[in-house]
Write a structure and sequence with these properties.
Length: 1215
């Protein structure tokens, strides 16, 4: 799919850009934004990766003000940006990078772009979890004029501290669709110092507490943090953004919101917390923004409690959405929405509200839209909505309301739309709508009403009413009285059986009437005569059997659906002249009647008569005005010529799935179509077409478009046709049929130029032999005679002289005499197989110079003396298998220079000089098996050598064997496998083959044993080379540990923890929510910042933690190198303990670190210990394998968030 900017590029390419000379790089397009400002769009594979080296300096700097780069989204390859990559583009104001798999954004990348206003970086790393984007702290320091920053969909885990501080002009920030864990990671929270520092001074005294500066103040007005992994809205989480107006934090995992989560946001007007897991909201949440908040989105949470005073004082609130929560009537009272004096829209749908109280909405006099659908409301108390005198839309669908009281809708004087559908209404009080004088649209469908409610009487402003899916059976009592402006009436799915003359007579403005899916079997004449504005009627899925004198007097009718009824007769005289759309499908209509020839007067544009019983299509059965015609799935067998002449508006015709076998070309002939109009589209597949000689035109119909008088057959390639005669396939795709396969049958035919038609012996007179079938194509270039299995004992002399294919198989000829086929000079294919032929004479095939295929298989031929096929110089295929041939003269096939296929298998041949086949240069397929070939050494030597050199041609070479004894039919070895050195004479002096046990018989066993040895050796070396991967696989798949635990660690079971995890505080989100969350399902962990006593000396704490743990896990990142590894006491303590327990260290690398970032000591640890890269294949399996056996009993049963801080002191650990 092309990106949006490429689509814009294509559109702009139409503009005149010749006034500006601009040389765009390859794979880039450009268009003018202004007179001298250019937008450049480039489509690259990657940026500075292992595949590509990208040089942005080739981009012209003079006019380029916007640059958009789109990388290949299918390549999982890292891209990178070097420092000052765009430094020469000094006029650039907009930069966008899409789908480029950046994993780090260095400081200085944007140097030189002082005028940049909009920056978008969307790597879509979310599609490849192994990639995440890291940003340097000074990544944006060079673009201080930035106004809009979009960092969505980058898989960002955290931001460096104060990264956005240089962006003093920033107005909009989008960080949605990342993996942010904590709102504080954004850096917009006013911080407070921790109670005590972790580090201690040199004398053991705590270091003096430092003041942590507040975050920088920014002018951001729009912040989008949606689609991350926040679980908490902390106190003052966004308080640094004093001018924030719009906050999007939807689609997270927030379950808790603190009291002052929105503290300091005094200008906030839009707040979206939808699609989270919030259960309750604090009462003071909106206190600071009470004077500015206008729209609140809280839908699709789990809110079941509304705190008292939550919405108090929000006098500017216009829209409140609380839908799809768990609210019940117990938590909604008169104070819940009090004071919302400007509220216009309130959505409480999809909750669990079971009752309404008149006090609920007492202050909502400005409310215009109230949505209460999908609740459990059973009744509406009197005067519930009285205060809402401005309410114009009330939705109460999908509740359990069974009765509507006379005072339930009191006070709703301006109500225009009321939905009460899908309730259980059985009756409505006659005065229920007396105060709803402005009601225009009323939905009562999906209830249990048994009659038209009396309450609808005299509702003169009512425009539409839906009474569908009820139990109404009578439309006359009480009927529709006084609804003079009603234009839409829906009665679908009721139990109506009869439409009387007065049913709709008092609805003068009625335009749309839906009566489908009822049980209507009769409509009285003139039932719609008084509805002079009626335009559309649905009567489908009823039981009508005629429509005479029903619609003729409704001149305004333009749309009529009478499908799925029981109509058995139809004529265009029953329709009004102005009708444009008619659906008659799924009836029993056998013919489209047009008794008065109205085709030129009708205005019908769309006609659907599919699934009926039509048998033919004629010109007067289709109106001349037709545009769309659907006649599929009928019984049509004939389309008359010139049917579609004068149908000048025709655009589509469906004739598929009928019974059409043949069709004349003129049946699709059209009135000439203008060149500026597309040709009509026809669908004719699914018919049992016969590919006879009159249908060859259909194969080429789409090539006749230059005539502009024939349609385009859209499904031509899907059409299958039945071949009139074929021995291989009965049905083939029409487009694959050869010209000579379009055949017609004949008995006698004489060409017009023939002068001897009245005589018996006439060469140009075609007479099909008795009991035979004969076929020809349109030009008589193919003439097929089929006399198969008709019981002839003599060869026929009446075979037509121009026959091209003759089938005589399955008869009983005995022998083929000389000159049997004399004069058949056009014969190409001859079948005489299975006909008990015992002999073929030398001149049997004389005169058949064009014969290419000859079938003589499965006869009783015993020998070929050399000249039987001498006259067949063009022969390509000859089939002689399954005979009794014991002798073939060496001259038999020598003259057949064009021979390609020869089959002599399953005969009685002892010898034949196979080397003579070299005289047939085109021979590509030979079959010789099933013959008792001689086992004489000399003959075998010749035949075996020839087989090996022509193995590809002999299709049954592996089945050709010699016969040792012709009487007992003892078979020898396969000829192609015989080694001639094993062939020796018998003791009596005659030559033969001795099948002895020789040393070579053991060669297969030796070869097989050698292969097994080599395979075993390869497996051993592979196991050694990949022993670590093999151990991991065995451990994860079979639960087996191979050479994993050393003898020196027998005391591991006495240690308190399975692993001690040390990390940087900035990586705590990854450790606690990803690493520890997964490992603590099986192991007991000690986390550095979660379980340490903050008052303890760090060196002692590290020593005790390592001693108390079976493994030590170091989460290595750049943050760790800068903070933890930089502490002398931390590094020395960890080093001393690891000297004694070197084999128990596991390093988990969060980032790819260059060698210069790692000091020599840490580099040594990485080389000598297990090192795992986060995101690599089978990461969790390798980590579990490196861990010890899980401790059986956990330290405590509380969740991690409720566990107390562990105090690691010797007297407690070793007590």
């Amino acid at each position: 799919m092309l990106p949006l900017f490429l689509a814009a590029w294509l559109a702009a390419a139409l503009a005149d850009n010749t006034t500006l000379r601009y040389e765009a790089p390859d794979d880039c397009g450009w268009w003018l934004r202004d007179q001298d400002e250019v937008t450049l769009a480039c489509k690259l594979r990657t940026i500075n990766s292992e595949y590509d080296t990208t040089n942005f300096t080739v981009i012209p700097s003079e006019h380029t003000t916007a640059l958009r780069i789109h990388c290949d989204p299918t390549l999982m390859t890292r891209s990178s940006l070097e420092r000052r990559s765009f430094a020469h583009l000094t006029r650039l104001r907009e930069l966008a990078l899409e789908f480029c798999k950046l994993t780090r954004l260095l400081g200085g990348v944007f140097e030189g772009l002082e005028d940049l206003r909009n920056l978008t970086i969307r790597t879509r790393n979310t599609d490849w979890p192994a990639f995440s984007l890291e940003l340097d702290g000074d990544a944006f320091s060079a673009v201080r004029q930035l106004e809009r920053l979009d960092l969505a969909l980058n898989n960002i885990w955290s931001f460096p501290e104060n990264i956005f501080c240089p962006l003093t002009s920033l107005l909009s920030l989008n960080v949605s669709g990342n993996r942010l864990q904590d709102v504080s990671d954004l850096g917009f929270r006013e911080k407070t110092p921790p109670p005590q520092p972790l580090m201690s001074g040199p004398d053991g005294e705590p270091v003096e507490e430092k003041n942590i500066p507040s975050p920088c103040t920014l002018d951001i007005q729009v912040l989008d943090t949606s689609g991350n992994h926040f679980v908490l809205m902390p106190v003052q989480g966004f308080s640094a953004l004093r001018r924030l107006r719009e906050l999007y934090i939807h689609d997270n995992e927030i379950s808790m919101v603190n009291d002052k989560a929105l503290a300091g946001l005094r200008h906030l007007s839009y707040f979206d917390l939808s699609n989270n897991k919030v259960v309750a909201l604090p009462s003071d949440l909106f206190r600071d923004c009470a004077e500015s908040i206008k729209e609140i989105k809280l839908q699709n949470n789990s809110i079941s409690v509304l705190s008292k005073g939550l919405f108090a004082g929000l006098n500017q609130l216009v829209s409140l959405d609380l839908s799809r929560n768990h609210l019940t009537s117990a938590w909604i009272n008169g104070d819940t929405f009090s004071g919302l004096i400007r509220l216009v829209m309130l959505n409480l749908s999809y909750n669990r509200i079971s009752k309404l109280e008149p006090t609920f909405f007492h202050d909502l006099y400005t409310l215009q839209i109230l949505n209460l659908e999908y609740n459990s409301i059973e009744a509406i108390p009197p005067d519930t909505f009285t205060p809402m005198n401005n309410l114009h839309t009330l939705i109460l669908s999908y509740n359990n309301i069974s009765y509507l009281d006379s005072y339930a809708l009191n006070g709703l004087y301006v109500l225009s739309h009321l939905s009460l559908d899908s309730n259980v209404l059985e009756d409505i009080h006659p005065d229920a709508f007396r105060n709803c004088t402005s009601l225009a649209d009323l939905n009562l469908n999906g209830n249990k009403l048994a009659k038209v409610p009396t309450a609808l009487r005299d509702m003169r402003l009512l425009r539409t009413i839906d009474l569908g899916e009820n139990l109404i059976s009578d439309l006359d009592n009480p009927g529709f009285i006084g609804m003079t402006n009603l234009y839409g009436l829906r009665l679908i799915g009721n139990h109506v059986t009869n439409i009387s003359e007065k049913a709709f007579s008092r609805l003068p403005s009625l335009q749309i009437l839906n009566l489908s899916r009822n049980r209507i079997s009769k409509i009285q004449s003139g039932a719609f005569d008084n509805n002079t504005k009626l335009e559309a009627i649905r009567l489908d899925a009823n039981q009508l059997n005629h429509i005479s004198e029903i619609f003729k007097e409704v001149p305004s009718l333009v749309w009529l659906n009478i499908s799925d009824n029981q109509l058995e007769w139809f004529d265009y005289t029953v329709l009004p002249a102005g009708l444009q759309w008619l659906d008659l499908h799924k009836n029993n209509i056998p013919e489209l009647g047009n008794h008065y020839n109205l085709e030129a007067e009708l205005k019908l544009q769309t006609l659907d008569v599919s699934f009926n019983k039509l048998t033919k299509v004629t010109a007067n059965s289709i109106p001349d005005s037709i545009e769309l015609l659907f006649m599929n799935d009928n019984l049509i067998t004939k389309v008359e010529p010139h049917t579609f002449i004068k149908k000048v508006n025709l655009s589509r015709v469906d004739l598929y799935a009928n019974q059409i076998e043949e069709m004349d070309l003129n049946a699709l002939h059209l009135t000439p179509i203008d060149k500026d109009k597309p040709l009509p589209e026809f669908y004719i597949g699914g018919n049992p077409f016969q590919c006879d000689c009159t249908m060859e035109w259909l194969q080429r119909i789409n090539t006749l478009d230059f005539h502009r008088q024939y349609p385009k057959v859209i499904d031509l390639e899907a059409i299958y046709c039945k071949l009139l005669y074929s021995r291989e396939r009965l049905y083939i795709p029409l487009v694959e049929a050869e010209s000579n396969q379009f055949l017609c049958s004949y008995k006698t035919h004489c060409f017009a130029t023939c002068s001897c038609c009245d005589f018996v012996a006439c060469d140009c007179k075609m007479t099909c032999p008795l009991n035979c079938s004969c076929y020809h194509d349109q030009l008589w270039s193919a003439n097929i005679v089929d006399c198969s299995s008709v019981g002839y004992t003599e060869l026929l002399s009446s075979i037509p002289m121009d026959a091209t294919e003759v089938y005589l198989d399955g008869n009983n000829f005995g022998q083929l005499t000389s000159h049997s086929f004399i004069g058949r000079k056009n014969l190409i294919v001859l079948y005489a197989n299975n006909s008990n032929i015992a002999a073929v004479n030398n001149h049997t095939f004389t005169g058949l110079k064009r014969l290419q295929i000859l079938h003589l298989e499965n006869n009783h031929i015993k020998e070929l003396l050399g000249f039987e096929f001498a006259s067949l110089l063009g022969l390509k295929e000859i089939y002689l298998q399954g005979n009794m041939i014991h002798y073939i003269d060496n001259r038999t096939f020598v003259l057949l220079k064009h021979l390609e296929i020869l089959r002599v298998d399953n005969n009685r041949l002892l010898k034949f000089q196979v080397s003579l086949f070299s005289a047939n240069p085109y021979l590509v397929e030979i079959s010789l098996s099933g013959n008792p070939w001689s086992c004489e050494c000399k003959y075998l030597q010749e035949m075996s050598a020839w087989l090996r050199s022509h193995y590809a041609k002999v299709i049954d070479a592996k089945y050709i064997t010699c016969t040792i004894n012709n009487r007992t039919n003892d078979l020898g070895r396969v000829v192609k496998d015989i080694n001639i050195t094993t062939c020796s004479p018998y003791a009596g002096g005659s030559r033969g083959i001795v099948d002895r046990k020789v040393l070579q018989d053991y060669l297969p066993l030796f070869f097989f044993t050698s292969i097994i040895f080599l395979v075993c050796l390869t497996l051993v070396f592979s196991a050694l080379a990949y022993r670590r991967e093999l151990r991991v696989w065995m451990y994860t798949s079979c639960g087996m540990s191979m050479c994993h635990r050393a003898a020196g660690f027998e005391d591991d079971d006495e240690r308190l923890f399975d692993a001690y995890v040390t990390y940087c505080i900035k990586d705590e989100g990854f450790v606690t929510q990803v690493l520890a969350a997964r490992l603590e399902e099986e192991f007991r962990l000690c986390l550095h910042y979660r379980d340490f006593n903050l008052t303890a000396y760090v060196a002692d704490t590290v020593i005790e933690a390592v001693e108390s743990s079976k493994r030590t896990i170091v989460v290595l990142s750049r943050n760790f190198l800068v903070s933890e590894w930089g502490r002398i006491e931390f590094k020395s303590a960890l080093r001393e303990r690891l000297k004694e327990r070197r084999r128990k260290l596991i390093v988990v690398m969060l980032n790819e670190l260059s060698p210069r970032e790692v000091d020599p000591e840490l580099r040594l640890y990485l080389k000598t210990h297990l090192c795992l890269q986060w995101g690599e294949g089978r990461f969790w399996e390798k980590l579990r394998y490196a861990m010890p056996q899980p401790t059986r009993r956990p330290v405590c049963l509380q969740p991690p968030s409720q566990q107390p801080k562990l105090i690691l002191q010797p007297q407690l650990l070793w007590a």
